[in-house]
Specification:
Two copies of one chain form a homodimer.
Chain A lengths: L14 H5 L14 E7 L5 E7 L9 E5 L34 E2 L5 E7 L2 H9 L2 E6 L6 H6 L12 E9 L2 H7 L2 E9 L11 E7 L4 E6 L4 H12 L6 E4 L16 H13 L3 E4 L2 H7 L6 E9 L5 E11 L9 H9 L8 E9 L14 H19 L3 H8 L8 E6 L5 E4 L4 H12 L4 H10 L3 E13 L5 E7 L5 E5 L8 H13 L6 E5 L16 H28 L6 E4 L2 E4 L2 E7 H8 L8 H6 L22 E6 L5 E13 L6 E11 L6 H21 L29 E6 L21 H13 L5 E2 L3 H13 L22 H4 L12
Parallel strand pairs in A: 1-12, 8-29, 10-11, 14-15, 20-21, 27-28
Antiparallel strand pairs in A: 1-5, 2-4, 2-6, 3-5, 7-15, 8-13, 9-10, 9-12, 13-14, 16-17, 18-26, 19-20, 19-25, 22-23, 23-24, 26-27
């Protein structure tokens, strides 16, 4: 590689644009478009008796009103079940507009198109829908009780039952020296991106083609869905993901009802139509995640080694299963983390409720799995009186055991085999970073000052870079610009920077010459999408492979121009020259001219290229057999299986003895995503992930009442951490390159969020000495836990064993260890 | 090949659309766009003293007015010289809007943009341009005299002098037993498509991209030109050629001033803008062709074999040379036709005049060259008293002499080597078809009835399928539709049909499943363009190569699905099955699903595909190394050199002894374009070509007065043949496959037009017994020739020799030989 840009903390190239208001988000587009609005169900479960649109018809500026009856053919069919699975015996999806029955609050019933959004909302408000309410199923316990059914034809509200096992877990547990059994509970949360969903469609009647902008994580799949629904060839549907203000998973679902309806109406009306989700809509009509109950049985030996583990996962899937059962599959497989378990059985039961659908949110089932495993490790340590970190270490897969086969089937249907890693070293580093071994002294010093602090740790493994493939296209134009495109989309992760680094490094060009396009089907038509921490691994490697083809072609052509052996050439600063000798060189922009036997007279570079007497002999074709004109290449990366990143987090928290307020004093992350393309971008991802994890650990929940109304469907009521609640995050890296891909990289997008609930739970438990089995842990919840513990000694852990943070008790001043933390009394929230 | 469609007279698939008014021509697009109009020079040569736009400014609806001073950077630079040539020492091009000096009537001076075309024209009329007239150079003799200069810095008005020779022509002529020397004159004509030029541009500010529709023959090159001028990457400029109502060469020039200015203003104003050329504009602001004077010296032996030929070609290039000197190069090289000439020298002198630019028009210099060669053959025959056909036969390259090297450099810069042909057989067939050997009896029978008829013949060779390349892309989608795209454009030739035949034949699919896109840079970005009878040869073969890749991939995947060896499989009616056994088969639409490891749940075919247990082993990547997802392939065809079609035409004409009116009684064509893809389409091309040739032979001229005003710049004054003037054309085919390309085909687009002037001249000369040395031959011209001949016996040919149509004198009734012809007195024109 020529220029040293791979692995450097290059500043994010998109930030200049995004931070100065020059981003082009969906609602920045189509300012003259008609607006769509939706009448949505106010009931969690009801039969639609009548829809009376007459009141809307005299709204000036109204263009159209559609109900399910108006949707022709495939437009009106139920939405697809994206990822079928044999275990999902009772998969169900909704209609683009509700037909007969609504099954959650927010389900779209009527679509209104009007001159602008105000008028569309006014018209929507005048539409009278008569409902016959039906009993709502809310909460996992209610769903399991199955007094009422979400779908008449789904007995017991059970969509899927899936068992995975290695060995005989029940027997192993029964035979183990020690056994524990407990239930864990994880609340619902949601991706909650700054920008909600949005679709803007324009039909080109001249061309018979459709352009759709969607704030999506999967533009090629949205294209395929729209094409299928509208009966258009893929080639007549262009889907572009413009700047997207965060996705975190919710925008990988496709097609959303609105992604079908808005393009359909745009074609029908031959008018541009736009719909942008408002915040309340996002809360009730997009998707949630996380909600699970886990029943754990574990057997272990005196050293804390797990001999058998049995987990029954009750998963709340909401009203429909458009995305299949990928989340509980991930929970049940990734739960094992860095550990080798004697025998394992996981049973997933996926349950319907009359609540918003549940689809992947950053971490996608992993935070629940890690919460389960790490709570279990802590329980074992407390039970045996061992150091919590030591118990983890006792269970680790060792560095010499890779590739390590967990004996399960992963989310991609392939064997769950870890490719590389060094978990002991991760733990060693995070212990050092957080000061694990000196923590007892800190705790005691704090206690002397009336403060209650605790320390927690969590280790996890994350399958990243899931297949089946991603492609990259690289073209060097006659101005020397390098155009890199890949089909997957960007939601602010820094792809423009990272992909440009990869291309610049592979090609030997200045990074400023590299222009990256993502998520535009006009530029790259085959893609899977941005999710599962796969963008850098998949598209990064595909782009690298494409660059290598372009580089090879460039060296061949330049070799002819310079009359040199291509093997002796290298590329520096965008010019090809003999290795180590820059006296004679040919710029890549000139190579681009030379690559095309059709020379354009209006191209400045063509004149420049004439100095090189390059032309194929008159006895041969101008384009050689097997060659193509142009200095471009395409590459696909398709891995045998996922690559496994890992990390260890540790935190020190303080709990207020009076108010039960919880503050994170320190947060340390040691992260291993293989070779780092850009440590600054990875750290940014970690920071963002931890921040979302803090939300999940302490604040975020979806408060449904028993009738299925979401009581906190606004940012006034739904608590997210502000910068004041998120600690400074201390990071360190480990690099165990992946042997599976040319760049040796692993995904990093979700990492930060995964173990946070587990780590905070571990630390609060340590601070309070009370068993933490449910997240999020609000002051209310902690207060209630204290109250309950006062009557139930079984909820106390410290008495049983005073382990955790034990060891050398010579720690320094508490104040020094809690840099930047405010005393609880001074914290705003 | 599965289905038998290659070589069949499949009806044109585009006709149902085009003939029922469903074509989408440029002016059908952008109905809400702003309109552009141009103030054009009324002077052939003048200095611009002042432009006063103030009068236009109060036109309601005016949006913008631009003069050259308003054009920034490269937008205002002179237009490119598209095909530079070392001999073109003084190439000159105009500015998009005139700067200081105008050099022909019609040159654009001011651009006006307004709400609609009416307003734009109104505003344009109010703009006052003050000119200082300069002396105009009109006509080749005036240009050569160089009393005045078109360009101050081009001495003698000579843009280029190019000599090509084989052997010592002067010496060979001087030593020959017989010598002749004469001057020939060919008038100007023009492509005159039914639809003029037009550009419609829209800027997408959201996307930073430009969509340009242009009625062009070269959308990729227009894209490159606009991108270069506007400083945009190619990828941000989409150029689409919609339905185009004829091109015939004039639309291959690029960029036209309007193709730069309209997109530039559309971006600047961020408004859609359209300009469509009106008929007068087309006459004075597009391009002409043909105009040449040829000074011929020829030496030959007693058998009429040409021992030496020297031709000096004075070529009228008009005011600028944007397309280089390709026309006279073609004239001077293709002039040799099917003959082997002892020694040959051609000198091309390209001259500037203050008239519209001269760029290729169907035939592109060949009609002039064939006129020269065939007039020469007739002169030799008359001189020696030999049969005109026999003299041609005596000079033919023989079928066993291929590949035959003419020893010259062709228009593509490669050696002029004919690949295949059978000229004696062509001549034999056309003699039989027209009844050459029985013509004297017909003539005498006619003479007895007071009618004067004559017979003529002409043979030509046409280099077709010029490189450097063309590409094709073929994709089979999951509905089984076959999407074929190629970069070159269509102007009504029947590409949709012919390319679909090729794809259907190669793939074994029903032709109704094939959808062809041409000239859309969004679909295929590399192309050269549609000209030089190259579309079928170049894109046809590229598409065939692409199909073969797709077919190979389809058989491989189907082989896995059917558990059969791909070599045992074939495709019939869009389904793959074991050869000769259709009991088990897999439809291509299912193969398309299987080709992409990402299966879409919303695709009906995906469900159908599940019956085939195809999936790559879990130990291998989902996309195999070197493979790509999708059932598609791309192919490029890049020939070593051009392939040479040929033909022989013969005609019987009748001239009115009183009015000098000329009627074509019969017209016979024997044509060899190698393997026929679709004889009906080829015959349609021949018919259209002959019709245009009849125009050039008898009617069309550009009547410039001495000040450079085009006096007949309308269809009221410019004569074109109607259906009443074009005879029924009798055709026969010969197929000498080209060994240069996989399909064995040769181009056919220009063929019909090439020898018509020569054949009509030959026949009129034969009827009148008067030497015909200038075309077109109007009744006026023939009458004048008769007058001159009455005082100059040297203009008479019949006295010298009564050859031509001699031989067996036993022909039948004249009336039988002139099927469908009216007596001159009853003809309308």
């Amino acid at each position: 590689m020529g220029t040293r840009v791979f692995g450097e903390p290059v500043k994010r190239r998109e930030d200049a644009r995004l931070l100065t208001g020059r981003g082009r988000y969906l609602d920045d587009l189509g300012r003259d478009a008609l607006a769509a609005a939706f009448v949505r169900s106010p009931h969690a479960h009801a039969r639609i008796v009548d829809v009376d649109v007459s009141g809307a018809l005299d709204v000036d500026g109204l263009v159209a009103v559609y109900t399910w009856e108006d949707l022709p053919g495939r437009v009106g069919e139920p939405l697809p079940l994206l990822i079928p699975h044999p275990a999902l015996t009772h998969g169900r999806t909704g209609y683009p507009l509700a037909r007969d029955v609504v099954r959650h609050v927010g389900e779209p019933v009527v679509m209104v198109v009007a001159r602008d959004r105000y008028l569309a909302e006014d018209a929507a408000e005048r539409i009278r829908v008569e409902y016959e309410p039906l009993p709502a199923v809310v909460g996992i316990e209610n769903a399991e009780r199955a007094e009422y059914l979400v779908h008449d034809d789904v007995p017991g509200n059970v969509g899927a039952v899936l068992v995975q096992e290695t060995g005989d877990a029940a027997a192993a547990i029964d035979a183990a020296p020690h056994r524990l059994e407990f239930r864990l509970s994880i609340e619902r949360s949601a991706s909650t991106p700054l920008e909600g969903r949005g679709v803007y469609a324009r039909w080109d009647a001249d061309d018979g083609s459709l352009r759709v902008y969607s704030s999506t994580q999967a533009s090629t799949s949205v294209r395929a869905a729209i094409a299928a629904r509208l009966g258009l060839p893929n080639g007549k549907v262009e889907v572009v993901a413009p700047d997207v203000g965060g996705g975190f998973g919710v925008k990988i679902v496709h097609p959303w009802p609105e992604e079908v309806l808005v393009p359909w109406a745009a074609r029908l009306l031959n008018r541009e139509i736009k719909w942008t989700e408002d915040r309340r809509e996002h809360f009730v009509a997009a998707a949630h995640e996380r909600g699970q109950l886990q029943d754990v049985r574990v057997g272990f030996d005196d050293a804390g080694r797990v001999l058998g583990l049995d987990v029954r996962i009750l998963h709340d899937h909401g009203a429909y299963t458009p995305y299949g059962i990928i989340i509980p599959i991930v929970t049940s497989t990734q739960l094992l983390g860095p550990y080798k378990i004697g025998a394992y059985r996981a049973e997933v039961v996926s349950l319907y409720t009359n609540t918003l659908i549940v689809t992947p949110y950053r971490g996608a089932g992993r935070p629940q799995g890690v919460f389960c495993m790490e709570r279990t490790m802590d329980r074992i340590a407390r039970h045996l009186g061992l150091d919590r970190a030591d118990v983890r270490a006792a269970n680790f897969i060792q560095p010499d055991e890779f590739p390590y086969d967990q004996g399960l089937t992963f989310q991609d249907g392939r064997p769950l085999i870890y490719d590389s890693g060094d978990y002991p070293e991760l733990l060693r580093k995070v212990r050092a970073l957080i000061g694990w071994d000196g923590f007892e002294a800190e705790r005691e010093a704090a206690a002397r000052r009336g403060r209650r602090i605790g320390i927690g740790v969590g280790v996890y493994v994350e399958g990243t870079g899931v297949g089946p493939y991603e492609g990259g296209h690289v073209e060097i134009d006659t101005a020397g610009r390098v155009h890199v495109s890949t089909g997957l989309t960007s939601q602010g992760q820094g792809h423009e920077t990272v992909f440009a680094q990869i291309a610049a490094a592979e090609l030997g060009v200045p990074i400023r010459d590299v222009h990256v396009t993502t998520g535009d089907t006009r530029r790259f038509g085959y893609a899977v999408g941005t999710f599962a921490s796969r963008a850098a691994v998949m598209s990064g490697n595909a782009i690298a492979l494409a660059c290598r083809k372009v580089r090879e072609k460039a060296l061949r052509i330049a070799g002819e121009a310079l009359e040199a052996d291509p093997r002796d050439l290298e590329i520096t600063d965008g010019s090809v020259h003999v290795r180590g000798d820059r006296s004679a060189s040919v710029p890549l922009r000139t190579v681009a001219v030379l690559s095309n036997p059709l020379r354009y007279a209006f191209d400045d570079e063509t004149a420049a290229a004439t100095q090189f007497a390059v032309g194929r002999p008159a006895t041969e074709p101008p384009v050689a057999e097997g060659d193509e004109p142009g200095l471009e290449g395409r590459g696909y990366y398709s891995p045998v299986r996922s690559t496994f990143a890992a990390g260890a987090h540790a935190a020190i928290v303080e709990t207020d003895p009076d108010t039960a307020e919880i503050a994170i004093l320190r947060y340390a992350v040691v992260h291993d995503c293989g070779k780092l393309v850009n440590p600054m971008v990875v750290e940014g991802q970690i920071h963002g992930g931890v921040a979302q994890g803090v939300g999940g650990a302490l604040y975020e929940r979806m408060v449904y009442d028993e009738s299925g109304q979401l009581l906190n469907a606004s940012f006034m009521d739904f608590l997210m951490p502000y910068a004041t609640e998120v600690p400074r995050i201390e990071t360190d890296h480990l690099e165990t390159p992946s042997p599976l891909n040319p760049l040796g990289i692993k995904g990093a997008g979700e990492a930060g969020v995964i173990p946070v609930s587990a780590v905070i739970a571990s630390a609060v438990e340590d601070a309070e000495g009370l068993r933490v089995e449910a997240m999020p842990l609000s002051p209310d919840a902690l207060y209630e836990l204290r109250e309950r513990a006062s009557g139930d000694p079984g909820l106390r852990v410290r008495e049983t064993a005073r382990a955790g943070g034990d060891g050398a008790a010579t720690g320094g001043q508490f104040a020094a260890g809690v840099s930047g933390a405010l005393p609880p009394s001074e914290r705003g929230r």
